């Protein structure tokens, strides 16, 4: 009986932590939408903070503003998002193919959710404005937004899992 209560407490603690992560991802989504709407409505505003500057930039290319045909890009983005959705929904079945020792399937699901939400966020921009709205400018580098940071962080986390965790194919 005592072991079962401890196990139940551990499950509740884990669910609260995971719920906090999912909620945090949705808050990042909302913050990105708010910033994008602010800069769409106020395109002339330019703010400088330390080494970052904030202003409206429309990115009609792909990563880092590389040019690509818009029709082909929209097809690729839809395929990418559908692929992420299928992976997110089927992540529990991944255990048949891969054993992830420390991270666990739920954390992989959270990372995929992070990337999926960010990709959908940028896709909404492509539908509404014909380009992704960027508002963070790094000097001598690129313009980006919170969704771009989320996508990059998600791919880095997945890379970390597969590089540094013990992953075995079954």
Query: What spatial order of strands do you see in the largest sheet?
Result: 1-2-4-5
- Can you tell me the residue ranges where pLDDT is under 50 for at least 5 consecutive residues? none
Number of strands: 6
Span between termini: 35 Å
The 3D shape can be described as globular
Helix-strand category = alpha+beta
Order of helices and strands: HEEHEHEEHE
The fraction of residues assigned to DSSP E strands is: 5-15%
Radius of gyration from the alpha-carbon trace, in angstroms: 19 Å
State the helicity in percent bands. 55-70%
**Major sheet details:** 4 strands, antiparallel
In round numbers, the mean pLDDT is 80
What are the salient characteristics of this protein?
single chain; 61% helix; two-stranded antiparallel ribbon; 170 residues; 6 strands; 4 helices; globular; alpha+beta; four-stranded antiparallel sheet; 15% strand
Could you please describe the fold and organization of this structure?
The mean pLDDT is 80. This protein has helices spanning 2-41, 70-89, 105-129, 146-164; strands at 47-49, 52-59, 98-100, 132-137, 143-144, 167-169. It is of the alpha+beta class and 170 residues long. Helix 1 packs parallel to helix 3, helix 2 runs antiparallel to helix 3 and helix 3 packs antiparallel against helix 4 (146-164). Strands 1-2-4-5 form a four-stranded antiparallel β-sheet. Strands 3-6 form a two-stranded antiparallel ribbon.
């Amino acid at each position: 009986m005592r072991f079962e209560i401890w196990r139940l407490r551990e499950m509740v603690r884990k669910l609260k932590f995971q719920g906090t992560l999912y909620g945090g991802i949705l808050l990042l989504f909302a913050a990105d939408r708010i910033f994008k709407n602010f800069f769409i409505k106020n395109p002339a505003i330019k703010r400088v903070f330390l080494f970052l500057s904030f202003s409206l930039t429309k990115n009609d290319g792909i990563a880092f503003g590389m040019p690509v045909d818009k029709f082909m890009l929209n097809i690729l983005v839809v395929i990418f998002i559908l692929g992420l959705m299928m992976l997110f929904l089927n992540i529990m079945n991944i255990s048949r193919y891969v054993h992830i020792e420390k991270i666990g399937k739920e954390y992989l699901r959270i990372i995929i959710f992070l990337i999926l939400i960010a990709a959908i966020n940028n896709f909404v921009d492509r539908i509404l404005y014909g380009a992704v709205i960027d508002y963070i400018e790094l000097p001598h580098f690129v313009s980006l937004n919170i969704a771009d940071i989320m996508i990059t962080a998600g791919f880095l986390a997945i890379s970390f899992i597969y590089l540094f965790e013990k992953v075995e194919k079954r």
